[in-house]
Amino acid sequence: MGGESHPACHTSAEVYNPSTDQWTSITDMNTPRSGAGAAVLEGKIYIAGGHDRQTHHSSMESYDPATNQWKPCANMNYSCSGIALSSVGHYLFAFGGRNRFAQAYYNKIQRYSPTQNHWEDIATLQHPRAWPAAAVYNGEVYIIGGYDGNQRLRTVEKFDPQTLRCTAMPSMSDYRAGVGAATL
């Protein structure tokens, strides 16, 4: 979904079918996005934030595979790219991000309720970070690495959606931004 190639950011999206080993285009998103966060919640794909080289977005949209349609959702509380987006329970959580035009790196955690179509600021990370990874394990979100405006990070935080608190975890060996993470 989205991304960029010189000189433009994309609205296009594709789906991979492992049975046929092929990529197929789906309906374009409403907004061109690069550096956006994406997550799955209750059978829909959500993509939030990002930039189009001119503007950082606070907007979010959801994709319903049953209808092949993108639908606008409530805007996040701030415009940014480089957020990590995760789902736990019935909520989406957005972690960190950056707005280069405001020279801001965020330590904010926001929560989105699809039933209320509403974002709220609920907590803060211990460190501002853009382009971190986020992975869910045992109902908690691990926010890994990123960039704080001065350096790449090796720090890791564990966010508990029940208590709305972050706990410092052991740091990685290497400093990494734009890192990926997954759980098995």
| SSE order | EEEEEEEEEEEEEEEEEE
**What CATH architecture would you give?**
6 Propeller
* Backbone structural class: mainly beta
According to CATH, the homologous superfamily is Kelch-type beta propeller
Please count the helical segments: 0
Low-confidence region ranges: none
Strand % is 35-45%
CATH class: Mainly Beta
CATH fold descriptor = Neuraminidase
Q: How many strand units?
A: 18
Rg (C-alpha, Å): 16 Å
The total tally of domains equals 1
- How would the global form be characterised? globular
What portion of residues is helical? under 10%
Measured between the Cα atoms of the first and last residue, the distance is 23 Å
Mean pLDDT: 96
Largest sheet properties: 4 strands, antiparallel
Strand order of the largest sheet: 5-6-7-8
Structure description:
There is one protein chain. With about 180 residues, the protein is mostly beta strands. The protein has one domain (about 5-170): 6 Propeller (Neuraminidase). The protein contains no helices and 18 strands. Strands 5-6-7-8 form a 4-stranded antiparallel sheet, with no helix packed on it. Strands 9-10-13-14 form a 4-stranded antiparallel sheet, with no helix packed on it. The chain has a 4-stranded antiparallel sheet with strand order 15-16-17-18, with no helix packed on it. A hairpin with a 2-residue loop joins strand 1 (about 5) and strand 2. It is globular, with a radius of gyration of 16 Å. The chain starts with a strand and ends in a 15-residue tail after the last strand.
